[in-house]
Amino acid sequence: MAKKESTFLNMLVTLLLVTLASSAALGYIYEFTKGPIAIAKSAKKNMAIHKVVPEFTNLPGEEVKKVVADNDTLYLYPAKNGDQLVGVAVETFTNKGFGGPIRLMVGFLPDGTINDIAVLEHKETPGLGDKMQKSKSNFSLQFEGKNPDNFKLSVKKDGGDVDAITASTISSRAFCDAVQRAYTVFKEGGIQ
Amino acid sequence: MLKTFAKGGIHPPENKLSAHVTILDLPVPKTVSIPLSQHLGVPAVPVVDKGDAVKAGQLIAKSEGFVSSNIHSPVSGKVVKIDKVPDTSGYKKNAIVIEVEGDEWIETVDRNGDLINTFDYSREEILKKILEAGIVGMGGATFPSHVKLTIPRGKKANYLIINGVECEPYLTADHALMMQKGEEILVGTMILKKVLDVDKALIGIERNKPDAIEHLTRLSEKYPGIEVYPLQEKYPQGGEKQLIKALINREVPSGGLPIDVGTVVHNVGTAFAVYEAVQKNKPLIERVLTVTGKSISKPSNFRVKIGTPISDVIEAAGGLPEDTGKIISGGPMMGKAINDLSVPVTKGSSGILILPEPEAKRKKIDPCIRCSRCINVCPMGLEPYLLMSLSQKNLFERLENEKVMDCIECGSCSYTCPSNRPLLDYIRLGKVNVGKIIRSRK
Amino acid sequence: MNASDCYEQQGLIEDINEGLITVNVKNTSLCADCHAKGACGFFDIQKKSIQIFQSSANFKVGEKVNVILKKSLGIKALFLGYIMPFLVVLVVLIVLSILHASELFAGLVSLSLLIPYYVALYIFRNKIKKSFTFTLRKIE
Amino acid sequence: MSSVVLFTIVSLSVLGVLSAIILFFVAQKFKVFEDPRIDQVEENLPAANCGGCGFAGCRNFAEALVKSESFDGLYCPVGGNETMEKVAQILGREAVAQDPKVAVLRCNGACDFRPKTNQYDGASSCAIESALYGGDTGCQYGCLGLGDCVDVCNFDALHMDPVTGLPVVNDTNCTACGACVDACPKDLFELRKRAKKDRKIYVACRNEDKGGIARKNCEVACTGCTKCFKVCPYEAITMNNNLAFIDADKCKLCRKCVPECPTNAIIEIGFPPPKIKEPADVEATDGKTGPAETIMKESKESINNKEE
Amino acid sequence: MSKLITISPSPHVFGSQSVGRLMYGVILALVPALLVSVFFYGMGAIIVTLLSIGFCVLFEFLIQKFILKTEVRISDGSAMVTGLLLAFNVPSNLPWWIIMIGALIAIGVGKMTFGGLGNNPFNPALVGRVFLLISFPVQMTSYPVPGGLNTGYVDAVTGATPLGIIKEGLKSGLSISDLMKEVPGYLDLFIGKMGGSLGEIAAAALILGFLFMLFRKIITWHIPVTMVGTIALFTGILWLINPDKNADPLFHVLTGGVLLGAIFMATDYVTSPMTPKGMIIYSIGIGAITVIIRVFGSYPEGVSFAILIMNGFVPLINRYIKPKRFGEEVKHG
Amino acid sequence: MEYVLIIISAVFVNNIVLTQFLGICPFIGVSNKVDTAFGMAGAVTFVMVIATMVTYILQHYVLLPLGIPFMQTVTFILVIAALVQLVEIILKKVSPALYQALGIFLPLITTNCTILGVAILAVQKDFNLIESVVFAISNALGFGLALITFSGIREQLDLADIPKSMKGVPIAFIIAGLLAMAFMGFAGIVK
Amino acid sequence: MSNLKNFAKGFVKENPVFVLFLGLCPTLGTTSSALNGLGMGLATTFVLAMSNLVISLVASVIPDKVRIPSFIVIIASFVTIVDLLMSAYTNTPGPNGEPSLYDQLGIFIPLIVVNCIVLGRAEAFASKNSVFSSLLDGLGMGLGFAFALTLLGSVREILGSGSVFGFKFIQGDGILMFVSPPGAFLALGFLIMLMNKWKQKIV
Ligand SMILES: Cc1cc2nc3c(=O)[nH]c(=O)nc-3n(C[C@H](O)[C@H](O)[C@H](O)COP(=O)(O)O)c2cc1C
Ligand SMILES: Cc1cc2nc3c(=O)[nH]c(=O)nc-3n(C[C@H](O)[C@H](O)[C@H](O)COP(=O)(O)O)c2cc1C
Ligand SMILES: Cc1cc2nc3c(=O)[nH]c(=O)nc-3n(C[C@H](O)[C@H](O)[C@H](O)COP(=O)(O)O)c2cc1C
Ligand SMILES: Cc1cc2nc3c(=O)[nH]c(=O)nc-3n(C[C@H](O)[C@H](O)[C@H](O)CO)c2cc1C
Ligand code: SF4
Ligand code: SF4
Ligand code: SF4
Ligand code: SF4
Ligand code: FES
Mutation test of the interface with chain G: which of C30, C37, C42, choosing the one with the most G Cβ atoms within 10 A? Predict the structure, then answer.
């Protein structure tokens, strides 16, 4: 095909065709990926819930309960296996972090025992406060299987039971603060 | 606080070894060679030929154009050749070589040493005498004095400044001259005042010459309108821009001349030469210079015929010491090193300095550590470290913008640099290159 | 003229007509310094011609020259061309939002105010033209 | 078709058309594509950006080549005729061949021939030294040996010979860009026509002093004796200010002048035999004989050969 | 004359200052602070200092000799100053390999990549220090508690710096008056009995060094005085506004690296402006940024960062703040 | 107050060049002269603000209502490209003298990733119109700050003896790294 | 030029990052680990190859003056496609809650559209060459880009966290600076320097 002259009409037509083709293709691909994208998105949240509570069959996202505290919101996701409540995942926060707010997902068994904790969001210093993540150190493991009723959620320096991350008392304190807040809310109204 | 200029400056050890030595007349040498270019401007043109007999004081080369100067024979004898001879420029340049025979002078010169302190020539007459006597600035720049004294139209001088600062270490010629020919200098100053039509003449002298200050102050009482000012010791106070700043707190604008701030500056030697030219009809054929150095046996001040080879002068001061490392025509800060003892004394030679071996060598160059010492000492407010690197990288436009042409080449920056950087060497090179560009633009 | 107060651009004289010299300067894009500009075609080099009234005695068509613009004029151009319209948009936007106009309205109105701004520039174009003077210098 | 696809198509098409209109105007008013030949030409230039052509860089030169009507005065000394030929092909023009040139140093005042009379101790720059004075030997015309020329040579064609204290031109690398010619404050470099096999005969001296003085300061100085001038059958030699000069264009390399010179100031290079010694060999000798002297010997030897 | 005479352009006489003398002067001025440090931190201070100097000089030597293949000029003392100051900026219990990395970064990245002495835009010792702080935050923020001459090296008991205590306390909502009880008193702060980097603690010794350098004309007063003044001024204003949340100016000046930074690091010739006016602008900048970081930032101490940031602005300062040229404004007096 | 936070954050803490890595190409490429850097900063401010406003309106009043936010990339780039060119045309038509002066003063502004990046970030951060504009301005300032400081250092280094192998781009990256490191000191000023 | 050469030149001789210095933002922004670098590189490769392919197909019928806008639309479409695909299939967080690849690459995916290499190749190569060689060119350039990103990512990961592609080989942290922004600049600076030296050696 020969190159078209750059007349105004030619240009309009070409561009129209190009845009038509592209947009049609894009529209189609969008339709095609819409499903997987949505799944991936919801899987992201569920993933965190999945990780912190035992196996469940319901859709905790549908049954979420919001509790407002300290100018922010905690989310309680009940996890049920059939009709049986197997645990509650609490999305909690603290503003006492070293680098800014920290958001955690704390999984409680129905009796209030901490099952697991996942860090959703933090801005702590790499190498210091970021050791609260499971992938970086064992710090958060010490909470597993502890019930805050008989495990004091504050660092040893402040008379609690938690071993702080080396050189990161502030982050450790903040972590405890977030877990404590989750537990309080869980206690107050979490258990259905 | 004594007066001094505001910014920069250094105070190197003074070493004024010959400070109180009386000026002696050096015997007339056997041959003299008189360079045709002893002044700033166009070289003079010889008016004698090989074989001609000349008398002392006779015109032998005529000024060529306005910015040029007459040259007279300092001796009587025969012209043996007009040829290239090494001079202080470091190159061989045309000179008239005269073999001395007898001591005949042209008749007009009054060789009597008595002071004549009255004159009543008109300004034009004085200027003409100065022009004819071939007087140039004795402060080192050798700028023809009649040019300086011809005030451009539209400008007016209000001060005459006489430069008795002599801030260069070692040199004492001006000091000795002020002590011995004080009154003549003052008369010369009166003459200059008349030419310039100013009421006030200021004589600036650094306080390391208290006797000269005292001597001239006392003498000046007789001469109305002349005032002597003691100044704090600081190099380069003798630079005319700095001296003007120190004395009357005016700054010569960048690229400007002293006359732009209503002044004319002359060296005490020039004033003396003017006195001799006007009152005694004596052209500029001899000058006072210092021969000095730590290992010179007799540091002295001599009155020397122009054209005398410096070897004669050094001989008279006790000969060249064993440990000579460097021979400098002028002072240690601005003088020029020379490599040939046959180089003649010229109108601008203010001294001969012999540096011993260890002092002659420069030290190893280190990288610039940006200590800003060079900036702090630069009397012109320049940034020598920057100028040097711009010059090394051939960035002429930036050099011009950084005002490289304002540098007075005082060398304070090189003196002070802890890294021994050859700042002035490169700045000078930059000035040459930028100067070329500026000229090509015109 | 002191070079530090000026910008310079190389150009080629395209035309000389009764003292009106037209010079083509290359306006290089951001990628000017990039040696891969040959590989990159993003809105590449454009030419701009500049008209200068200057005695044309010394110049020939096809000659390379430096076009010199005073730095203060460059800054003025920057101001008129970019900063001022930016301020206009910003101020109007802020005023409208203080008045609680809807975002769409505020946004569109403040953007459309660029039109009168440019119209104003157009009206004053001759005045502007007078204040922007260029000088030519030969490149040896 | 779902509404999303529909909206996609509509919105993008609208935008596409709008930008088409805008960009149409852009194209109309602004877009001046650079002549693609400039790129092509530039690709064929040596990319040395040395300025030997008189332009700021290879690209500027390429532009000039493309824009000009003929190649008058446009020549890349670095690429030489070959490059100009290629460029001419691209532009469909006639290349003007120029004789290739090479830099020669018109001073042979090695340390052995030219005793030092003083010691220079300023900044290490020929320009600065020469501004200060004539130099650290009796000859004020000769090489100062601080290598300003070496610094500016972009082609690694110059290096200082530590023994002679003189720069040595590497004929193979030298592109005759002329940078050294401009850099030398003593004006010692000359770009001479490259003859066959890089043979050359030239007066390696710039000393304008009278014979005796020149000779006293440097053993190999041209004394201005005019012997060579008289012997040259082709009038290739001129005398000026006590100095002989051989015009490379007229010189036919007959070598008659070479043995005439009483101070061996005329240098011949590239003539057989013997072969030119590698500089490495020179260094291997006890360090006293520098290339200059080697050259001298060679010329003497070749004289002998001829006489036999 | 047996020897050839020398010819060179003017001037022909020179002052007596040299790079080596300046650098060794700085080292001498730092000795009192080192002694105090040894007094409080024992062997650790000596080991860290020697290691740091050793590594810095070694790296400078290796890079000059084998990588850049230039003249080796370790004897000019600048690498030693860098090493000493790097050591002064780290805790006295820092493991040897971290010191090595710090020295490599300081000399290798901070100095030699730019061509060595005189060319680096950023203060090498601080480049090394901040690099370590970000890379090894645990080790770089665990300061030994001053325990006298026999405090160990790596086994030292660690604690917090006064600034760290304040910062942490404020974060947990305590007030200054409470916290002041936890930090050492002013006399201790003045003589250096507190936790901190090994060279920054001894205010008295640092000031002694300052006087020595002033006397020897190694530095001028402009940078140190302006910088300390600015910090005192800004913290003073904050303190007056809210003494319960902001420590007083004296505390701010005596703790952390203010004095060390002001006297020895901000004054580094190479990375500070060339004119007095420029120096004043520069040190006001350092002071202001230090206070901002200390009060609002997450780092308890900001001097190092502040100096590095202002180092970045030095070329601009030099470009716009020129010495007053002679004859610039024509005065007719 | 939140505007102040946006400004401080974008200029110092999360500087667009030094920590967000946007606009590196012009940062490395055009930052040789301080004068040009100043000009660039001014021009980029204008373009960035206008581009952000237009894309904001596009996003919120076209793409979102139509349910096609995935068309963001395509539409934004088209709009921005056209806009940049449009400004040029208008300037040229409206005041040739001004246009010519700018031509000598500044390099052209092309659509680089800063402009698109800021437009997209403003949308991602859920800013309202004014916040978006403030965000754009502060990023332009941050860009300008980094560019100007950087060009100052490079101008100075032009006179220094950088080792040969480091000359040019490598040293530029080292400087940028050290500058970025210094700017890390601002961490935490804005939470 | 042979097809092979055409393909290979992107790796060393005309490497977009180390030699041409193009697309520096993603290079710095996405190389905190080797895997991220590789991911970004591959995403870019896809766009490059596909847009080169399509453009070389249609270039001959597009009038000169709308060339650029058409190319932009085509490239942007492929970028959007990558974006959509990645948000669908690479958006799962890691086992320990590390952010997904899609999240880590973040804004740099849409910004592929302004990456000079993409448009540059379209203009300079695809619009003038055959479909197959354009595809190869795109693949070569893209893989060269990916190679550079992976290399930088690996270096940063090794130094910064003591691991490559997530496999840890030392306990604890590495030199954390290398995983933070300044480290990206420093590492790239020294890599380019080394590349320069190496290239000089092999030439
Ligand atoms: C650069 C730097 C980053 C820091 N980051 C954190 C952090 O992320 N989390 C934290 O708890 N402490 C951090 N700190 C340390 C605190 O300032 C404080 O020193 C520490 O929390 C208290 O020390 P301790 O835990 O050893 O008692 C950091 C300190 C510095 C200097
Ligand atoms: C080119 C030139 C022109 C000068 N013209 C005048 C002049 O017209 N009037 C004047 O008073 N001095 C004039 N001077 C002399 C200078 O003011 C000055 O006295 C001279 O250069 C020596 O000064 P120095 O020794 O401080 O360098 C001129 C000097 C030069 C170099
Ligand atoms: C750095 C410097 C130092 C100078 N020192 C002196 C000095 O000590 N005495 C002096 O008479 N002239 C000195 N001059 C020369 C003066 O600037 C000026 O040329 C001279 O006083 C003019 O007088 P004249 O024309 O009579 O020589 C110095 C010049 C410079 C640049
Ligand atoms: C007064 C003074 C202060 C210095 N401060 C430092 C410093 O803070 N850090 C450093 O690495 N070197 C310092 N040096 C040494 C030297 O200047 C430094 O290594 C250069 O920056 C290297 O180019 C200092 C030197 C002097 C004279
Ligand atoms: S720059 Fe010139 S005027 Fe300034 S100190 Fe140096 S020599 Fe003197
Ligand atoms: S005095 Fe020397 S070391 Fe100091 S700034 Fe000037 S040139 Fe540099
Ligand atoms: S020797 Fe001279 S002419 Fe030859 S390449 Fe080198 S600088 Fe150019
Ligand atoms: S030839 Fe000229 S430039 Fe080269 S070293 Fe000799 S004097 Fe210097
Ligand atoms: S990739 Fe070039 S500016 Fe960002």
Answer: C42
Residue F182 to residue E308, Cβ atoms within 8 A:
yes
Spell out the domain ranges in chain G. 3-202
Residue E312 has pLDDT above 90, yes or no: yes
- Cα of D185 to ligand 8 centre, how many Å? 7
pLDDT at B247: 94
Amino acid identity of residue F130, one-letter, is I
Angstrom CA distances, E19 to B366, C22, E261, stand at: 8, 56, 21
In chain B, the largest separation of any two C-alpha atoms, in whole Å, equals: 63
Q: What is the mean pLDDT of residues A108-126?
A: 86
The mean per-residue pLDDT over the stretch D19-45 comes to: 64
CATH classification number, D37-91, choose in 1.10.730, 3.40.190, 1.25.40, 1.10.15: 1.10.15
Chain G residue numbers with beta carbons less than 8 Å from the beta carbon of A15 are 66, 69-70, 73
pLDDT digits (tens, 9 = 90+) for D275-291: 444 444 434 334 333 34
CA nearest to G126 within chain C: C39
Domain boundaries, chain E: 19-139, 163-320
pLDDT band of D274, cuts 50, 70, 90: very low
For the Cβ of E57 lying below 6 angstroms from any atom of ligand 4, the answer is no
**In the predicted model, is pLDDT for residue D297 greater than 50?**
no
Average pLDDT of the residues in C71-87: 83
Both tokens of C138, joined, read 């030969």
Indicate the domain borders of chain D: 37-91, 101-269
Give nearest CA residue, ligand 9 atom 1. Answer: G23
The B residues from 61 to 90 touching E (CB cutoff 8 Å) are 90
Ligand (nearest to CA of G26):
9
Fold for the domain defined by D101-269: Alpha-Beta Plaits (3.30.70)
pLDDT tens column, F140-183: 999 999 999 999 999 899 888 898 888 888 999 999 999 999 99
From atom 2 of ligand 4, which residue's Cα is the shortest distance away?
E268
Per residue in B257-295, pLDDT tens? 999 999 999 999 999 999 999 999 999 999 999 999 999
pLDDT-based confidence at D160, cuts 50/70/90?
very high
Contacting residues of B for C4, CB less than 8 Å apart: 398, 401
Alpha-helical segments (H) within E147-261? 162-171, 176-180, 186-191, 203-215, 222-241, 249-254, 258-260
Separation between Cα atoms, residue B332 and residue B321, nearest integer Å = 17
Helix-, strand-, coil-residue percentages of chain E, each rounded to 5: 60, 0, 35
- Whether chain C lies against chain A with 3 or more Cβ pairs closer than 8 A is no
The answer to whether residues G181 and G165 touch, using CB atoms and an 8 Å cutoff, is: no
Over residues E206-251, the pLDDT tens digits come to: 999 999 999 999 999 999 999 999 999 999 999 999 998 889 999 9
Residue to substitute in D180, D181, D188, D198 for testing ligand 7 pocket (most ligand atoms within 8 angstroms of CB): D180
List the domains of chain B with CATH numbers: 123-280 (3.40.50.11540), 373-440 (no CATH)
Would you say E101 and E89 are in contact if contact means Cβ atoms under 8 Å apart? no
Question: Ligand 6 pocket check: which of B385, B407, B414, B420 to mutate, most ligand atoms within 8 Å of Cβ?
Answer: B385
Strand partners, D116: D137
Reported pTM = 0.89
F45 lines ligand 9 (CB under 6 A): no
Question: Do B390 and F161 count as a contact with CB atoms less than 8 A apart?
Answer: no
- In DSSP terms, C13 is beta-bridged to C23
CA D150 to ligand 8: nearest atom: 4
